[in-house]
Amino acid sequence: MINIRPATEKDYPRVLELIQELATFEKEPDAVEVTVEELQKHAFSKPPLFTCFIGEYDDKIEGIALCYPRFSTWKGKSIHLEDLIVTHKMRGKGLGKALYNRVLEFAHAQNVRRVEWVVLDWNKGAIDFYKSSGATIIPGWHLVQMDGVSLAQYLEK
Amino acid sequence: MINIRPATEKDYPRVLELIQELATFEKEPDAVEVTVEELQKHAFSKPPLFTCFIGEYDDKIEGIALCYPRFSTWKGKSIHLEDLIVTHKMRGKGLGKALYNRVLEFAHAQNVRRVEWVVLDWNKGAIDFYKSSGATIIPGWHLVQMDGVSLAQYLEK
């Protein structure tokens, strides 16, 4: 019933629906500015900016995992898991784990010394799952972001 | 006295010295596994995995800033600042700010909606500097990492 495969161009409208569902779950319903066209452009640019895997359950797209390379000055090339999404109604059926496994296989095939991602500190279910798989929660760091408006303002000064 | 420029191949032995100095400052002196050859390989691969800017003070390399693209499913293409390093003895002379500015200009030229990085929660000087420039500290996230050994173990199960 579960099938994991790379995304094709026509999947991206549905991919964006899942991204929006996750943003709503994370209490940021208005945060999504990305468009289907941007997703398609960067998925198939040369080089692509990311790799997106599709999780199907009974031939319907019910999950995605989106990842891309990063470069750690300590560990070299790494794979960053940006989003692992399963629709609310399809949780607990193994789709999330199948997507997670696919990303880890993808990373291992590239011989990286690290796979990394972030998790909300109140998402205990996810934290427990990641720990049980052998991942480590790294305490003591803050994320920092500058948005496009602040960036322009800073550079105008 | 300050000069910022892209790194060339022969700069990477010195770049690795600065990476090692930062790891020691961050209380992880044994964490650096990357080699000069790996840095050179990924700096000049097609496509390169990162962009490294060199900060010179009186013609000596006293700082670096290393960054690369990421892809946010909310904001699209972003620039991640992986490391901003100034040697201990050259702090307070404006070299860090010059490197920071160069990365922000580089990001702005690519029209991104976000520049992002991480900071240690005890590094108050850095946090204050980032905030004063218009960046935002994003609370509530944990970093998660799986190293290569744990990755292989997980996939063997």
Report on the architecture of this protein:
Chain A is α+β, with helices and mostly antiparallel strands. Chain A has one domain (2-156): Aminopeptidase, CATH 3.40.630.30. In chain A, 35% of the residues lie in helices and 34% in strands. Chain A is built from five helices and seven strands, in the order E-H-H-E-E-E-H-E-H-E-E-H. Chain A has a five-stranded mixed β-sheet, with helices on both faces. Chains A and B meet through helix 1, strand 3, strand 4, helix 3 and strand 5 of A and helix 1, strand 3, strand 4, helix 3 and strand 5 of B. Strand 7 (141-147) of chain A pairs antiparallel with strand 6 of chain B.
What are the SSEs and their pairings?
Two copies of one chain form a homodimer.
Chain A: E1 2-6, H1 12-25, H2 36-43, E2 51-57, E3 60-72, E4 76-86, H3 95-109, E5 114-120, H4 124-132, E6 136-138, E7 141-147, H5 148-156
Parallel strand pairs in A: 4-5
Antiparallel strand pairs in A: 1-2, 2-3, 3-4
Helix pairs in contact in A: 1-2
Question: What percent strand of chain A?
Answer: 25-35%
User: What is the CATH-assigned architecture of chain A?
Assistant: 3-Layer(aba) Sandwich
Strand order of the largest sheet of chain A: 1-2-3-4-5
What is the number of independent domains of chain A?
A: 1
What is the number of helices of chain A? 5
CATH structural class of chain A? Alpha Beta
Question: How many individual β-strands of chain A?
Answer: 7
Q: Gyration radius of chain A, to the nearest Å? A: 16 Å
Along the chain, the helix and strand elements of chain A come as: EHHEEEHEHEEH
Mean pLDDT across all amino acids of chain A: 96
